Amino acid sequence: MRNTEEVRSNIKIIGENVIPVISYLACGLHRSVSLEKLPMKKILSNVLNQIIPIMIVVYLGFAVNNFGENRKVKQQVRTYQEMLKIELEENLQALEKVRDYHVRLSQDFSNLLASEELEKDFESINFQGLKPGFVASSAYQTGLQTGIIQEFDLNLVQILNRCYTLQEN
């Protein structure tokens, strides 16, 4: 019960103090001047003279914040592009390492199929397994998870999707 009384008394105090503050802002004068004694043009001009600079400062604050955010996003896009470039180059190198082996293996099996002495020719093949080229997709996945890929051109996103889908298959 005491809390309720305290809240009511605080509201009353606040209400009593708000009216003079509004009057002061509207008049641009001391509290003793009442709004009824001033012409409406004077009241409006005082209010506008005080509100417009505040609006300008708030707008400038938002503009500076947006500028900072845009710079941050552009830096993240550059970093992501570099990560993708490095990852794709490493994936290409991994595939090129096993390419020669697969070309040679394909030729050996073609020769083996044409051979009349299958057992003898099979022993001459240097078969070391399939040796798949292991490729990474961590940079691409990071872009998807963070949403930074949305900053890319749609055609580039489509090309990246195809490339990484082919890598997975």
The tally of strands reads 0
The largest pleated sheet is described as: none
- Give the rounded overall mean pLDDT: 81
The SSE order reads HHHHH
Strand content: under 5%
Low-confidence stretches: none
Q: What count of helical segments does DSSP give? A: 5
Q: Which structural category fits the helices and strands?
A: mainly alpha
Helix content: over 70%
Alpha-carbon Rg, integer: 37 Å
Kindly report how far apart the N and C termini lie.
71 Å
Shape: rod-shaped
Describe the protein in words.
This protein is mainly alpha-helical and 169 residues long. It has a domain at 72-168. It contains 5 helices and no strands. It has helices at residues 2-27, 40-114, 118-124, 138-146, 154-168. α2 (40-114) packs antiparallel against α4 (138-146). The protein is rod-shaped and about 120 Å long. The two termini are 71 Å apart.
Which terms summarize this structure?
single chain, 78% helix, 169 residues, rod-shaped, 0% strand, mainly alpha
